[in-house]
Input
Amino acid sequence: MNFIKTELPDVFIIEPRVFGDSRGWFMESFSQTKMKEAGLNYDFVQDNHSYSAQEGVLRGIHFQNGDAAQAKLVRCARGAVLDVAVDLRKSSPTYKKWVAVELSAENKRQLLIPRGFGHGFITLTPDVEFLYKADNFYNAPQDRNILWNDPDLAIDWGILHPILSDKDANAPLLKDSDCSFL
Output
């Protein structure tokens, strides 16, 4: 596995080694040993899998507040997405900064997002399957989101009218949220 630093501290692009021949391919999508060797110590406890039928579906910007915060290791197993991590830690020198990475079934890249970050993605193709590991269980009372087009974040999603859930369409701006990350 190749661990590539991004502009945001502790957010890494992970490129697995892929072994292929005439039959297809094989890759190791996660190795706790290799993560620890890279200085990345996470204990993932939950796997999630989502499906988006259409191109232009935007999911995010999501996070869990307080002790329910989650680090995530995300990847796209079918289709392609533009994946975004946003630093929501108020005391961070990169507060409100974001990084966007294309993740696809073809490039097999993954994004490691630590606690204290918001996360979202937009589908670049139809029929997208998106998988992620989380290091904390889902906690409905601490589930939060930020409006996808918050002007203080100015994320370039590459689309003006995405397909949104009611929850994401009605999310608060960061300045109006109770985001508690320091």
